[in-house]
Specification:
By secondary structure, the chain is mostly helical. Helix content is about 75%, strand content about 0%. Helix 1 crosses helix 2, helix 1 packs across helix 5 and helix 4 packs antiparallel against helix 5. It comes from Pseudoxanthomonas helianthi.
Length: about 150
């Protein structure tokens, strides 16, 4: 792992709660969370299209015909994440939302790795389970489910 890659991953992680807060603010000031999520995807789509075009890509429609149906699910998953985060961040707060999302990512990643979904199998071991448990403990300490809302 390169230090630059690690730093970039941390920076991107730092932007996710800001994205949720910005989208929630847009939703509150406009037509709701789903509209804000749609705008987020629209702006993101334009940005990615421009970036892709700047790389001077080759394009053949036949290539898209060979892509399996399930490969398009990433966009749907992204839409569910952005819309859910936009809806939940005002209720949970940015820190609690991200902690719960990260715990969900850890559980999902361990399952996908263990069963080798779309990549080589990487079995779960006690160390990985211990790491997941530590993330859960951290999430619980941030979320504090034993406290009354607003307290």
């Amino acid at each position: 792992m390169s230090p630059t890659g690690i730093a970039l991953a941390i920076f991107i992680g730092m932007l996710l709660p800001l994205q949720a807060l910005v989208n929630a603010a847009l939703g509150k000031q406009s037509f709701g969370a789903l509209f804000a999520s749609l705008c987020s995807f629209g702006v993101g789509t334009v940005a990615l299209l421009l970036w892709w075009l700047c790389t001077r890509p080759s394009f053949e429609a036949a290539t898209l015909a060979r892509v399996p149906w399930w490969a398009w699910a990433g966009g749907l998953i992204g839409a569910v994440y952005v819309a859910s985060a936009t809806l939940l961040v005002p209720r949970l707060g940015a820190a609690a939302l991200i902690c719960l999302v990260v715990f969900g990512q850890i559980v999902g990643s361990l399952l996908l790795d263990h069963f080798g979904v779309l990549h080589a199998r990487q079995p779960v071991d006690a160390v990985k389970l211990g790491g997941a448990l530590l993330v859960l403990v951290g999430a619980v300490l941030v979320v504090k489910p034993w406290r009354a809302a607003g307290g």
